[in-house]
Amino acid sequence: MKYRNVGKSGLKVSEIAVGSWMTDLQGSEKAAVAEQTIRQAYEAGVNFFDCADAYSGGEAEKFLGKILKDYRRSSYVVSSKVFFPTGGGANEWGLSRKHIFENIDRTLTNMGMDYIDLYYCHRFDPTTPMEETLRALSDLVAQGKILYYGVSEEWGAARIVQAEQIIEKYHLYPLTVIQPQYHMMDRYIEHEIMEVCENYGIGITPFSPLAQGLLTGKYKKGQPYPEGSRATHQADKQVNQLLTDENLDKVEKMSRIAEKLGTNMSVLALAWILRKPIISSVITGASKPEQLENNIAASGFQIPQDALEEIEKILGFTKFERHVG
């Protein structure tokens, strides 16, 4: 496993992280598999575990904290997030100082920890002044309850720049990281956000790097969805919307590139994200240890330049630029 700094901070995280968004805790058997996967990840060198207060109503935080307590606190990095409702009250959601302060205590209790390494704003809150949110997060750093903080994709490039101006004006602790969706089929952060992060030294820890399973290569055009796959049971059907003939054709072509390189589509897709130095870590999900082993193989995997150029032709991405005249 290889490690990278989170932006310009001194914090080092494994190139492959394990997230808890899709962790299935329903039933003792599934919980046992999830625990085995987390422990196997740790033993393989993964030191970054991502979670959120909203995952499974707080149960994911409790589950992860219970497992990680068996290891030295200094040996791993754990993150959580704040924004979504934790109750029915008017102040039990969002990014107000009140909710942030109350929610970090809830998260720390859930995880059984004294501090969280990374704390993200899960969404943007238009009902709260940005200055209030940033001051609250900076104060949590000063209190030692969190070590670094970050934001989600919904903040956008303009909001990140605005945040940096507020941070500079009031001499707050820095914004360290952003967690957007980013994969071969969704490259919107390359339009503006990635450059802003590079300019300010903000690390990027993408989620959904395999496009919810599309980029594993397990879905084939004209064939039934694999039994038990996300496309057969996901309630919001996000992955189904990605399973177009055009996307499946692209994956098939890239799978041939992966085969030539002696690997598979999943490894190629993860290594493709890691081609960018501004990427600190890729947050992956794994429902079983075999998937984890495959994801970990992407750390340190170098895609040759000619293969990268071939991939670019297949993807057909064009960065947005507006020219007048």
Q: How would a textbook summarize the main sheet?
A: 8 strands, parallel
Oligomer: single chain
On the 0 to 100 scale, the average pLDDT is: 93
Number of strands: 10
Backbone CA Rg: 20 Å
Low-confidence stretches: none
The number of helices is: 11
Strand percentage: 5-15%
State the end-to-end distance.
49 Å
Structure, explained:
This protein is an alpha/beta fold. It contains eleven helices and ten strands. Helix 1 (28-43) packs parallel to helix 10 (289-296) and helix 5 (156-170) runs parallel beside helix 6. 41% of the residues are buried.
Summarize the SSE layout with pairings.
Blueprint: E1 3-5, E2 12-14, E3 16-19, H1 28-43, E4 48-50, H2 59-68, E5 77-82, H3 97-111, E6 116-121, H4 130-143, E7 146-152, H5 156-170, E8 175-179, H6 193-200, E9 203-204, H7 238-242, H8 245-260, H9 265-273, E10 282-284, H10 289-296, H11 305-315
Parallel strand pairs: 3-4, 3-10, 4-5, 5-6, 6-7, 7-8, 8-9
Antiparallel strand pairs: 1-2
Helix pairs in contact: 1-10, 2-3, 5-6, 8-11
Identify the notable features of this structure and list them briefly.
single chain; 325 residues; alpha/beta; TIM Barrel; 8-stranded parallel β-sheet; two-stranded antiparallel sheet; 11 helices
Can you give me a brief rundown of this structure?
39% of the residues lie in helices and 13% in strands. It has 325 residues and is of the alpha/beta class.
